[in-house]
Prior knowledge:
The complex is a heterotrimer.
Chain A: E1 5-16, E2 19-30, E3 34-38, H1 45-52, E4 60-65, E5 68-69, H2 75-81, E6 83-86, H3 98-103, H4 117-130, H5 147-160, E7 165-169, H6 177-192, E8 196-200, H7 204-210, E9 213-218, E10 221-227, H8 233-241, E11 259-268, E12 272-280, E13 284-289, H9 295-302, E14 310-315, E15 318-320, H10 325-331, E16 333-336, H11 340-344, H12 351-356, H13 360-363, H14 372-386, H15 402-414, E17 420-424, H16 432-447, E18 451-455, H17 459-465, E19 468-473, E20 476-482, H18 488-495
Parallel strand pairs in A: 3-8, 3-9, 6-7, 7-8, 13-18, 13-19, 16-17, 17-18
Antiparallel strand pairs in A: 1-2, 1-4, 4-5, 9-10, 11-12, 11-14, 14-15, 19-20
Helix pairs in contact in A: 15-16
Chain B: H1 6-25, H2 32-41, H3 43-57, H4 65-82, H5 87-111, H6 116-135, E1 140-141, H7 148-152, E2 154-155, E3 158-159, H8 160-178, H9 180-190, H10 192-197, H11 202-228, E4 230-231, H12 239-249, H13 261-280, H14 287-311
Antiparallel strand pairs in B: 1-4, 2-3
Chain C: H1 18-46, H2 53-78, H3 86-102, H4 107-132, H5 136-155, E1 159-160, E2 173-174, E3 177-178, H6 179-197, H7 199-209, H8 211-216, H9 221-244, E4 250-251, H10 258-268, H11 280-299, H12 307-331
Antiparallel strand pairs in C: 1-4, 2-3
Amino acid sequence: METPALLTVRGVSKSFGRVRAIDGVDFTLRAGEVQALMGENGAGKSTLVKILAGMQSPDSGTITLNGRPVTLPDPGSATRAGIATVHQELLLFGELTVAENIFSGHYPRRAWGAIDWPGMRRRARELLAELDCHDLDVDAKVRTLSVAMRQRVEIARALNQQAKVLILDEPTASLSERDAEKLLSIVDQLRARGTGIIYVSHRMKEIFRIADSMTVLRDGKLVGTLDRVGATEADLIRMMVGREIGQVFPKLPARIGKPVLEVEGLAHGRLVQDATFTVRAGEILGVAGLVGSGRTELAHVLFGITPATRGTIRIDGNEVRIASPRAARDAGIAYVPEDRGGQGLVKPMAIRENLSIAVLDRLSSFAGFVRRGNEREMAQAAFDRIGVRAAGIEQPVGELSGGNQQKVVIAKWLETAPKVLILDEPTRGVDVGAKAEIHRLMGEMAQQGLAILMISSELPEVLALSDRVMVIAEGRITAIIDRAQATPEHVAQAMTAQQSAPTQRKTTA
Amino acid sequence: MRFRYMHETVLALMIVLACIVMATQSAQFLTGANLLNQGRLMAEVAIVAFIMTFVIASGGIDLSVGSIMGLAAVLTGVFWQDLGIPLPLVLPLVLIVGLCCGLFNAFIITKFNFPPLIATLGTLALYRGLAEGISRAKSVRGYPEWFSVIGQGNVLGLPTQIWIILLFFVLCAFVLGTTRWGRTVYAMGASEQAARFAGLPVDQTKMAIYAASGFASALAGIIFVSRVSTTRSDMGVGLELDVITAVVLGGTSIFGGRGTIIGTALGLMLIQTLESGLSLAGVKGDGTIVLIGVVLILALLMSNLSERRMRH
Amino acid sequence: MTFAPDRNATPATAPKSLLTRLRAEYGHELLVAAAILLLIIAVGAYNERFISARNLNSILSGNAYIAVAAIGMTMVIVIREIDLSVGALIGVLSTVSGLVAVSDAPLWMAWAAPVILGAVISGLTGVIVAYAGIPSIVVTLGTMAILQGGLIAATGGAWINDLPPEYQIAKLNVLGIPMPLVWAIALTVAAAVWMKLSVFGRSLYLIGGNAEAARAVGVPVRRRIVQVFAIHGAFAGLATILFATQLQVIQSTVPPNLELLVITAAVIGGVSILGGAGTVIGASLAAILFAVIGAALVFINVSAYWLRAFIGLLILVTVLADMIRRQREMAKGGM
């Protein structure tokens, strides 16, 4: 028995200048259905989401809600039509309370037009209770909340709007395993109520857990919609990429040599406590852990962004003091950051300038004069070696795709001749094809004797590439597991290990 | 159209046009004596503007330059007349004070994450207030002969200020355009975080830039005192307006990441030409700041339009 | 599989009492009010004449116009903009008001003109900021120059004498309280209520807090920016009335330091320079605090020449406190 269509999208197209972001896409969403929306970066998912959220207008095509055609010229109209969106970048107001955040844009009013604050707070508490969030204070300022809590505020917003259609854009990207599970149970609840949900993600495990059907986009076009029953991961990858991907994570064998990085008792703040570990030449040490467990914080300590308050770091046996990124670079440590666009690249600058930016002092004379000829040579060589797909080294790096941008960042750091390379979520936001290339690159670098730390939230990636897996929970290293013993269960257990028994736990102010 | 030096060319053309118009209005205008004098008059704004190019290109701003200039002027008088320090010693002292004022700006901007706007708005008040408090509205006169060489004299046939302007111009153009510190400035302006994460010395560069701004402002103060042979606490009021207008007119984006010294130089020349044209037409001194305000807003609008066009 | 407790969760609480919440929300404003009282008492202990009714009256009503100007400026700063030209604007509007008053036009026009003209001029600034995307700091630097220069160029600094006595409404009393004070209080209360209870008012906090999110919830950001600047201009006009109608003679000059005072009042009053927070009550009270400080300096024989330095120091210290608080929150993993 087929329930009637809730939301129908027919022939929707949108171009930005000469680029066709989406081209004649159709899909149908039924009430009480969770449909996954999948595709590589640039496939058109976010454009489609923006159109449904009222943030962009399609060039052509129709959108029908409950049988009636709708136009969505602005976000307000989408909300009024009953489409709620929880974006990847949470759109919340830090200085305002939870209650006000939930109701911003549609405040409850009294008879004479004024905002009904007591009513708002009461209703906010009710909504949070429905989501089983009894521990959230409606008067708390949102800037004091954790990421998972903030997302619940966003979902409460959507609930409040009596949304018929809820769009979730990469909702678990920044969540811990436990918070993600909580989110999925909320999605179950909403589905049971008859809400239609569009779930944008490329996390296969979640999709197979929650989705009733999967729609795949590629290069702006609809490739197809599969029912969950009978669909396989391989099918979906093939649809997204258009070719069979044999091995997504090629593990290249490398000779493991002497210890290059030795860390002992390293500490900084709450999230890096007493870190002690070693990474050897040619070794890939995977760093796993829940979001907020302190992995990036550890990387920042090693790289000098937030220098260590205690402990020692040794490179090739010599103790080094790392007080700044410059010191880290000089010691032979390189860091490919999590936030590629904001921290890894200067987007308006050319590829050449981005490639040379970490070695400017080595490319310039005593007076500071930058030797342009040398720079150009160096940049061209790096560009060719790494295989960046772009018009040339003068192209502004902001115009490149995610995967190619990441290659530029990695190439930039390879120029500094590092001994230790720290990669933080190296393949996040990177399409499947480029992902494989980056994994291959990592293997090659290991073969050349680099010691590599790879921080990743994708367990399959960690398990496939690492020689050892280091697990961090709440700022402490809970386990360092050899490749042979590293199973998903073992790692997950270490990720959620509690630090001490309840009776012994110290209360911190 | 992606002609790289479009902006500078347009400016140069406008200057030529303005000069032609002025020349038809007054026979005096294109004489050597007059042009050199124009150069003399714009020295203070010029040297501060060259440094301000760095500041704005790095994504910051310095509103306190006028106040530092005023403080420098006051201190020149106070050190020399009230404290009896010999003038040759006073001058470097005043320059050091200017440097320190700039360093203080940099300190609160880097250590405490103050938005440069509000930091320099606060120090604009603080430094001007110090100038007013110290001088108590008295003015100082009677400087020795040799002192006025700086502001009124010639060296090798050209006004002293021209040499100073040239020196600053060459140094600044070289540093910003060809050195790694210049690259650092542009990177900071485009994305400060990325610059930090690339190991660039962001905080040190900021310290250097704001200190240089303070230094240049103090030097401007000394030149001005030498030119008018007197000291008053309201000197330099409105300097920031002239300087920022010249820089923005020259093509530096107010958001940072773009800008050249040549552009600023052209912007300065254009403004100076327009201003002298106005005074030839009989408009009083105060009226010319209306012109500067209008030019600033127009320059910002044009800069914005061209930025939008570049993005597509 | 057992899961670790979410350490980042805000601890469970029952809904807080009204009093606790009021204290949390208006703590800063209470602090400013307390500072005013303490200062008056302290200086009064030093010199009795300070707390005489006549003196307090003159301080409060003489400076009430700054509080009114601070109301409009608060709204501008809340949406994360700034207006450096407010002093010059009030100078221009005073002159216009005076000129209308001594002309043959009906007297009410002398009071209406500054409000309307202020709204128009400032609204134009808002259009440039909103639709050309240029930071208000530089736009208002330019408008300040245009207004200031224009005023001098047009009037040559001439004074306006012979103001009709009916014009000087600032000298009236309402139920024994001087008019400027009544107006300042009424406008502050009205604005505060409006900022808290109206959708328009709340939208300003949305814009200043997160402009993109504001757009996503349907706030017409660009239109609001223009509207806020226009309202701010109207408040500048109202402030002008309170200012100009106390004077015997209107000088065609810009009151010195005025923009600095108004901006500092807002910042000290708890309006964060980064936008999205703060109330008009705090700004108004802070303006009064400055008036008291200025008068106090005179009473304890400190040279008035140090006033500007003091204001500069105050801005720096207050913003410093705000920045330190934010840094601490960053360290804890906040926004």
